Structure prediction request, 855 residues.
Amino acid sequence: MTATTRREHDVAVIGGGLVGSAIAWGLARLGRRVAILDEGDVAYRASRGNFALVWVQSKGLGMPAYAGWTRRSSDSWQGFADTLRADTGIDVAFARPGGFTLALSERELETRVDQLKRLHNQPGVRELGYEVMDPTALSRFLPGLGPEVAGGVYCPLDGHANSPRLLRALHTALDRMGATFLQGATVTGIERRDGAFVVSRAGAAPVAAGKIVVAAGNGNKALGAMVGLDVPVRPQRGQIVVTEKVAPFLKHPIVTIRQTDEGGVMLGDSLEEVGFDDATRTGVTGTIASRAVRMFPMLGKLNVVRTWAALRVMTPDGFPIYMQSASHPGAFVATCHSGVTLAAAHALHLAPLIDAGGLPAEFDPFHGRRFDVPAPV
Amino acid sequence: MSDTSAGPASCALAIVGAGPAGMTAAITAAALGIDALVVDEQPAPGGQIYRATTRSPLQPGTILGDDYWSGRALADAFAASGAGYLPGTTVWSVAAADDGDGFEIGVSHEGAARLVRARHVIVATGALERPFPVPGWTLPGVLTAGAAQIALKSSGLVPEGRVALAGTGPLLWLLAAQLLRAGAPPTAILDTTPAGDFDAWRHAPAFLLSPYAGKGLSLIREVRASVPVISGVAGLRAEGDGRLHAVAFAAGGRERRMEVDALLLHQGVAPNINLALATRCRHRWDDAQLAFVPEIDAWGASSVAGIAIAGDGAGIGGAEAAAERGRLAALDAAARLGAIGEVERDRRAVAPRRALARALRGRAFLDRRFRPALADRVPSGDTIVCRCEEVTAAQIVEAVGIGATGPNQLKAYLRCGMGPCQGRLCGLTVTELIAEARGQSRDAIGHYRLRAPVKPLTLAELASMPATDADTRAVVRG
Prediction:
């Protein structure tokens, strides 16, 4: 195969999941010729396995900038969804009715409230307007609540969306804007040649582009290294259970229970350090089911349609990494484990910065250098 | 056989399915002193082919044929075998145990779920009917030939009014003969078998030596003598407003339409691979059978150590082949469990291997002769493919255009295969449709990824499963 350095694309986005697609969408809307490089049908796809919350209340303890970035995305989400709908006719079912965290013991509640207090006490964190509720107050919002619920936290900024439809809407819009989808081939190398990046792919033609955005989830570690970026991500397994469709009963998303606009009830989730293993385990899905039934006893009679596991893309501190390569200017990486929540920010705020050529100082907290280990003295 | 509905907590060998393969495997294993447990969703043994053979309201005689009643002898031997038996019990999951000691089988009986520990598993889940997605196939009044046969075997029921049987394959003719003998002859048979496949006849000599040839040909003769048969049928459509009224089709160069009360569709069977796929056994596309089949060795051992697959679930071979494959899988299980040595296993396998070869003798001919037409497997336009989510062929082709490289990305785009059946019904159609749209092989496109539960399970049942401290810590925060 002969490598071409003819620059057919302004930007090549590596990764066709929610992070890559949202950034690609933002760049394509600015008139850029975008290529999206993606793997095949079976891959570790966090974008197809997520819980689809657009969540604010727990984000940012330890990094105030993350709380602000999350809030900014949440505030931009309705406009983002409206634009997608206008462009594609696809309703991604975004709603921000306010969300809950429920506790099944006093201890769980105390832990939760303590975390929120500490999050709020950080400098620069805006008021979330959260409210701690007892079971009586919760029952006004959450009919069918079980007697074991000890209390909960409400935050009016929390919402959810239909994430498979979000992926389809982004891909449909990208297709209509003339973006190029190149699938089914793994990226094997990235090099600079004649002022362009040339991305080589296994068994497929190389792709040349002026800029590179690495947004391939757990693949970012290897891909980042190709452009001089250290991206310390690891897979963290999360398991989810979904029930058959039922009449709407739950307006508000709960951090572990939400009813989709289609009627199914999604139940999450787990945090497991098991490497690249996305098998489900009955003990874990059973525990998820058990907690859900204790929170809403009427769920017990519903049929389980599917259980699944997907791999989150985790950094050592759990916060995103956004940075440009010093050795390969024009190569960026974007990685996070909240591809739904942050989709609006990636599409509307991050993409224009990448297009302009650099990330401003306010993005410094997200730089990967925060993980650099100082040399021993 | 002991009816252990409450059931043991563990066994050496778990066998999923009590059709010819499962029953024979159990009989073989029990005779070698192995603690075997058969789990089956039906209330009585027999599988699909011998469904209700021990309790059908029909009397032994002519309606269902001698082959059907021969299942009773097998069921009797199974009953006397000493193997454990959980009837009316679904298997919704098979997974390697966390401690690495064998497998945990998730079973559900009358709304109560539990786990059974087994050191070795034989999956004998049989076959499913190949989908036949024609316009209007979701109308009330349209059902599969298999569903009609279940009603006949279990309850002695036949469809009422004018009944058309449409499609291809041995089961179509068998059902026609059974309905005929039950006094409810179909109004017509609309034969969609593509004409002129001369290559099939290359395999005919082997078929003529097979046990099926004589029976099959006399069956077809019997039906043709009493039921009008229209050959070369294409472009089948079910018509009706809220309910089936007519079936339309092209035959002999012209469009035809026939008013009917019931339309029974059938175009062959395919291995039921749902449990094996969910257990992550490797599969490959078998172009002769137009289906995914598990990768297995000569003993039925799958790519997952400790799991074997026997019977039609390992590739369509019919009841006699299924029984022999069940026997071979049980012999291998016995060797792996230490009940017999490998030399003894091989010695005992000689006769079953010979019988298996004999039983499979006509298979290549049947696969070719009754190979359904591409147009009958790959629908177009507004024809529904995924019944659960009402996704059409045109929508799927459009989704392929924006980037669906395979069935799993298609789910994300269209919810296709995300309904209650989880793609168990539309899987073959979807794979073939995407393969045709992308110009790629079926193997390259692949199948939906299936996950537990592979059978219905309530959330309360799942919630009742035991959990370790690690499981709890993975979920509970704070």
Observations:
- Chain B has 17 helices and 22 strands.
- The domain at 378-445 of chain B is CATH 1.10.10 (Arc Repressor Mutant, subunit A).
- The two ends of chain B are 49 Å apart (CA to CA).
